[in-house]
Design brief:
The protein is an alpha/beta fold. The protein is built from 13 helices and 5 strands. Strands 2-3-1-4-5 form a 5-stranded parallel sheet. The radius of gyration is 18 Å and the shape is globular. The structure holds adenosine-3'-5'-diphosphate (A3P). Its EC number is 2.8.2.-.
Length: 293
């Protein structure tokens, strides 16, 4: 059951402050009624870590398994925290496997997803690049507060006063996943060798693909192709594409798609401040310490 306790309540009030007005503790409590299935796949991320990228890879992977099926036999749902309480029942009718995105920390995810040992894919990205990506997103997304200055935004990010709260607390909440059902995927690794990552993800999910299919999936999920496709879209016509909890305008998602853009934004002082404030916590996480930040 989602536990709406103080830290989590604070996170969610930050989401609410973002004027989405769509998430509340009451709504999260309705997730108690969520019926998890053993073959559900949870796509977890802190915002701006590459969630849409992973969703694209996963859809294409499942599509290889059932090429004639219109959605490749995977059903990409709306984010867990934005499920309409009155429609939770509709989820029951969705065919398996369901691919369920969420930005929630672990203690807020329905416990049944854990007891049923559903597979979890957690996307992790260098927090400095994540902060830069989120800064630009704040500037463009009308649902988020206006923050014009990078320095102001970085300060908010370091204090965890942005949507979904602290980056490092989010990661630490998922860090100690000991049941072998969680695959941690690094944005930087995807950038470095996408086919290798696609292969690893397919093995984790038990979806068999050929080398040609891995190449095809990597091509379809390249930044260039994804951005070009979205630019041709008139509006959110394909429900099987929507994963962002904070916008329905997918054009806002594909900005630069680069590793290391933080170097164009951080001053030396800001970099030192970042490391002084988050460094110790980051190094306490086995996962984050593998990210070059
Ligand atoms: P930037 O703002 O740095 O460009 P999310 O999907 O979690 O909201 O993450 C969005 C970030 O992932 C954006 O980062 C976006 O450009 C990047 N992204 C999305 N698809 C990508 C792809 N195929 N390759 C590389 N980066 C991608």
């Amino acid at each position: 059951q989602p536990q709406a306790e103080s830290g989590s309540a604070r996170t969610m009030s930050l989401v609410k402050d973002a004027k989405t007005e769509r998430v509340s503790i009451d709504r999260l409590r309705t997730l108690d009624r969520f019926d998890a299935r053993e073959d559900d796949v949870l796509l977890v991320s802190y915002p701006k870590s590459g969630t849409h990228w992973l969703a694209e890879i996963l859809k294409n992977l499942y599509h290889c398994r059932s090429p004639t099926h219109p959605t490749g036999q995977v059903t990409l749902t709306q984010p867990l925290e934005f499920q309409d309480p009155s429609k939770l029942g509709e989820l029951k009718n969705l065919p398996s496997p369901r691919l369920i995105p969420t930005h929630l920390p672990k203690n807020m995810v329905p416990r049944e997803l854990q007891t049923k040992q559903c597979k979890v894919i957690y996307v992790i990205r260098n927090p400095k690049d994540t902060a830069v990506s989120m800064f630009h997103y704040y500037q463009q997304n009308p649902h988020l507060p206006k923050v014009d200055k990078w320095a102001t935004f970085l300060d908010m990010f370091l204090k965890g006063e942005v949507v979904y709260g602290s980056w490092v607390d989010h990661l630490l909440s998922w860090d100690r996943s000991d049941n072998g059902n969680t695959l941690f995927v690094y944005y930087e690794s995807l950038k470095k060798d996408l086919p290798k990552c696609v292969q690893e993800i397919s093995e984790f999910l038990g979806v068999k693909v050929t080398e040609d299919q891995v190449r095809e999936i990597s091509k379809k999920s390249s930044f260039r192709e994804m951005k070009a496709r979205v630019e041709k879209e008139k509006e959110r016509s394909d429900a099987n594409h929507i994963v962002c909890a904070l916008t329905s305008d997918r054009k806002l998602i594909f900005r630069k798609g680069a590793v290391g853009d933080w170097k164009n934004h951080f001053t030396q002082d800001q970099n030192s401040q970042f490391e002084a404030l988050l460094g110790e916590k980051i190094n306490s996480s086995e996962l984050a310490s593998s990210v070059e930040y």
